[in-house]
Design brief:
7% helix; 30 strands; mainly beta; Methylamine Dehydrogenase, Chain H; 374 residues; WD repeat-containing protein JIP5; WD40/YVTN_repeat-like_dom_sf; five-stranded mixed sheet
Length: 374
């Protein structure tokens, strides 16, 4: 990809555990194993990135970052179980809540404007009211680390993947877990809701994408085989497509049902991919790795096609509606198409062997008013 089409690589002196894109501006925040947090304004072209600020609110590693919905605040979660909040404009520490968890926090996601979810290495999931800073729910159904979260707004359902080989499902309005899947005898490292809440895709240590049908949580209903190493991070491109980051250093694009390997976005040589995220305008996919970098990949060729198809569909619908208004005959509309759930294999993808395994992570969004009343 020509250098003028994407921002320059961000290079650090230590491992990048996590990063997060600003919800509306070309700003990215990175979290390092040293506890440093960096905020950068990214722009296309070599040498055009602008460092905004750098802080170290904790000497322990920062494991997760999450911007607030309005982008004014940034949540941080740390190895020492602390949750903090930073001012995005200045980097100043606004709030620091020590011992929010008894164990290192590993996953964070803002579910609504007022509810934040955190998960730790012992399997505990907590929900926080960001208006008061109080803990509203605590779930202790897992016995191993919480690796990732995703959330469905309409049903208010939180899904979580875990190192014990199960996924769990929660209605955030209720104190009890709704369901837990059968144990896959494999660490589940990443999770993503797709197909308009009909499917949940889960990445595993063995390199298999397990696909669950919504509401049928007992066992996966389909599997995508082909990643030669663990799938540590998943990012949804659209409802039918995901990007996967593997410990072989390769970022792949996968179509879901029908399951198909679409291509490779980029790679970090032999270094495991720690995190992949899509920018607010869907222009760039960014990835962090054990090579101590965050790299940007121009993916407009992926998202523009989806937008064009959506626009064409809307135009066709408008045309049919116009014809309906002027004709009392049948509308001739076709029903939704379907496909068989089958095992798939991206055996044509480049394969690189690497036994190094990264620490599991997963970030999200947040709210700057968190802990205001403490």
């Amino acid at each position: 990809m020509p250098a003028n089409l994407q921002p320059d690589t961000l290079t650090y002196k230590s491992t990048v555990f996590d990063f997060a894109f600003h919800p509306t501006e070309n700003i990215i925040a990175t979290a390092l194993i040293t506890g440093h947090i960096n905020c950068v304004k990214y722009q296309p072209g070599l040498g055009n990135n602008e460092s905004l600020w750098k802080v170290r609110p904790s000497k322990k590693s920062c494991r997760g970052l999450a911007f607030s919905h309005d982008g004014a605040g940034l949540f941080t979660v740390s190895k020492d179980g602390t949750i903090g909040a930073l001012d995005v404009n200045t980097g100043n520490v606004l709030i620091k809540k020590p011992d929010a968890h008894d164990h290192p926090i590993n996953a964070v996601k803002l579910l609504t404007e007022s509810i934040l979810a955190t998960g730790d290495d012992a399997g505990t999931i907590k929900l926080w009211d960001v208006r008061t800073g109080s803990e509203t729910m605590q779930y202790t159904d897992h016995e191993d680390f919480i690796s990732d979260f995703d959330y469905d707004v309409d049903s208010k359902t939180l899904v979580a993947s875990s190192g014990q080989g199960t996924i769990s499902v929660f209605d955030i309005r209720k104190p009890q877990m709704l369901a837990m899947s059968a144990n896959q005898d494999d660490e589940l490292l990443s999770i993503c809701i797709v197909k308009d809440r009909r499917k949940v895709v889960v990445g595993s240590q063995e390199g298999v994408l397990n696909i669950y049908s919504w509401g049928d949580w007992g066992d996966c209903t389909d599997r995508f085989i082909g990643h030669p190493n663990s799938i540590d991070t998943i990012c949804k491109i659209d409802e039918d497509t995901v990007a996967t980051g593997s410990s072989d250093g390769i970022i792949r694009i996968i179509d879901i049902l029908p399951n198909k390997f679409q291509g490779v976005v980029g790679e970090h040589d032999d270094f495991p991919i720690e995190c992949i995220r899509l920018s607010h305008d869907k222009t760039y996919l960014a990835s962090s790795s054990h090579d101590d970098t965050v790299r940007f990949w121009d993916v407009r060729y992926l998202t523009n096609g989806a937008n064009e198809e959506e626009e064409e569909g809307e135009e066709a619908q408008d045309m049919n509606e116009d014809m309906d208004d002027s004709d009392d005959g049948d509308d001739g509309g076709a029903g939704p198409s379907g496909g068989m759930d089958v095992d798939s294999d991206d055996s044509d993808a480049p394969k690189k062997k690497n036994n190094r395994r990264p620490k599991k992570q997963a970030p999200a969004q947040a709210n700057p008013s968190f802990f205001d009343d403490l």
